[in-house]
Amino acid sequence: MGGETERRRTRAPSRAEAPSLAGTGARGFERTRVWLFDLDNTLYPAECNLFAQVDQRMAEFIAKFLGVPFAYAKHLQKSYYRQFGTTLAGMMRVHRMEPTPFLDYVHDIDLTPVPESPALRAAIDALPGRKIIFTAGSHRHAERVAGKLGVLDLFEDIIDIVDSDFVPKEKPEPYHRMLKSHNVTPETAAMFEDMPHNLVAPHALGMTTVLVHSSYIDHPIQLKIRNWTVPPEHVHHMTEDLTAFLTGKTGLVRKAEAAGGAPAEPG
Ligand SMILES: [Mg+2]
After folding, report:
1. How far, in Å, is the centroid of ligand 1 from the Cα of 200?
2. What is the domain range of residue 61?
3. Residue 220's closest CA among 39, 78, 33, 70?
């Protein structure tokens, strides 16, 4: 691993102040006028562990839909996730399953763990420009969760997995669709996401990328992130605390992209 990391504090600009990152070579937020947020484990902290509920309900639905034991449904769920990027995509391709009943069922979860977040609301509200939720979940799920957080009305729209034609965000197609449907110029957009591989496409398109990661979850991807000595090229910024990042209290920016250090393997 050549090159050295320079860790410096950065933050998104408020309406009153737009700090310049010029000179660092890292993509900053000077030009950002469209703020795109993933929902799950990004807008709310991973500690809420909503995915445990969704995960359980996906296997329940598959078991019932296919008439197979729960353990086998669980196995199919994981293998479709690996093969097709999402469990839903696999079920649609292999079993011709209709997406709507599945999405309704898996997202019918208890939102008690999601806290109302006035500080996050203030931080998002202070960002200059348009704000959009861009999720691989359903529209209804995003609406419920953002409503519980107390931030729903700040967003001009929710782009969900149906709008993305069920293609996961690790592929460039959903980004191309979003740019076109919402008239977004990539250089003026920033994407906030908890899955590093979902930032490859927005980075390639010219967006600023922010990885919202967590030391709470022992997901293999999170374990991999913890082992990075240098973030991969497609991750401009990293934070474990979205509100703190947006208000300038925390966050790391990778050194100049031209630093010469070999980027870590993408997650
Ligand atoms: Mg997510």
Report:
1. 14
2. 50-106
3. 78
The answer to the question of residue 267 being in a domain is: no
Question: 195 alpha carbon to ligand 1 midpoint, in Å?
Answer: 6
| Ligand 1 centroid to residue 175 C-alpha, Å | 15
Distance in Å, CA 135 to ligand 1 centroid: 7
Q: Is the dihedral of CA 174, 149, 42, 251 positive or negative?
A: positive
CA 244 to chain centre: 17
- Of 3-12, 114-123, 124-133, 136-145, least confident by mean pLDDT is 3-12
Q: Is 165 a member of any domain?
A: yes
Question: How much is the pTM?
Answer: 0.83
Phi then psi for residue 79, to 5 deg, are: -70, -35
Q: CA 246 to CA 266: how far, in whole Å? A: 24
232 in any annotated domain: yes
Name every residue whose Cβ is closer than 8 Å to that of residue 17 and which is 6 or more positions away in sequence.
none
Contact call for residues 37 and 43 (beta carbons, < 8 A): yes
Amino acid at 97: M
pLDDT per residue as tens digits for the range 181-193: 999 999 999 999 9
Instruction: Count the Cβ atoms, other than its own, within 10 Å of residue 98.
Output: 11
